[in-house]
Amino acid sequence: MTSKILRRLFHSVLVLLGLTVVVFGLLDLGGDPAAQLSSPDATPQEIEAFRHEHGFDRPLPVQYLEWLGRAIQGDLGFSYRQGVPALSVVLDSMPATLLLIVASLAVAFLVAIPAGILAAVRRGSRFDRLVISGAVFTQSLPTFWLGIVMILFFAVNLRWLPESGGGGPEYLVMPAVALGAFQVGTYARLLRSSMVEVLDSEFVRTARAKGLSRHRVVLVHALRNAAIPVITVIGLQIGELYGGTVITETVFGWPGANRQAVQSITGHDMPVVLAYILVVGTLVLLTNLVVEALYGVLDVRTRDKAAA
């Protein structure tokens, strides 16, 4: 198990390095950073001095290797726009993004897990058909469209919630629901299908034959095994959410890291963009490790294989 984790860490480091190389190249394709970062009334001499000061006059591979050497020492540079450490810019806004992700997952779990279990237990019923139809409907709703509709209805017309921004819990309600709507459909359908398959398995019939209560059979024996494919999808979607909340953050004016990253990209603030890539990549790595650990808890076969 230890060797597997070490291999995973090694591969993840290579992926992070590859991402930084790609980002470096893409940002260079965006034009002359010195001209874009200088003031509109800057003279050619001032632009050239700015280019030399920040090393933009050096070959791109040299710029990258110099940045990588500083990054290994924990120095990710300073934001060109804000004049503060690039890492602090990302870390200051990342808690808002993580809060939004956790809130959206909470919304999805509270709705999808009971709905998926009940639909599987009552398969073929009206409730089962309603869950399947509702799951397809929520998956088909664009997040930006749902967010705009919610703003118009709950903020503009009813004035129950603030339109945008960050602050108290009332600012989190609409972004969390809009972001969690798609996940509700995904998790409910997947859990329902997995539960149906597990409920027809031999070990569930054996548990029923032993006289175990229906609740224990469903919630302990069946749910534990049915949750394995769901956890796989959750792990993948959390990785996507780290960088995929940008639309929700933009629509609701949520002060998250993805919104900050987009502003840094348009502003050619390379140190902040690279710091964002490293932070998000690390979060994805940690999420994958947690998912693999959960496999060992839920699936005895995975744990035995790792031990062997």
UniProtKB/TrEMBL annotation:
Signal peptide: none annotated. The keyword rRNA processing does not apply. It is found in: Cell membrane. Residues 94-295 form the ABC transmembrane type-1 domain. It comes from the Bacteria. InterPro entries: BPD_transp_1_N, MetI-like, MetI-like_sf. The chain crosses the membrane at residues 9-27, 98-121, 141-160, 172-191, 217-238, 273-298. Keywords: Cell membrane, Membrane, Transmembrane, Transmembrane helix, Transport. Its main location: membrane. Pfam families: BPD_transp_1 (PF00528), BPD_transp_1_N (PF19300). It is a multi-pass membrane protein. Gene3D superfamilies: MetI-like. PANTHER family: DIPEPTIDE TRANSPORT SYSTEM PERMEASE PROTEIN DPPB-RELATED. Belongs to the binding-protein-dependent transport system permease family. This is ABC transporter permease.
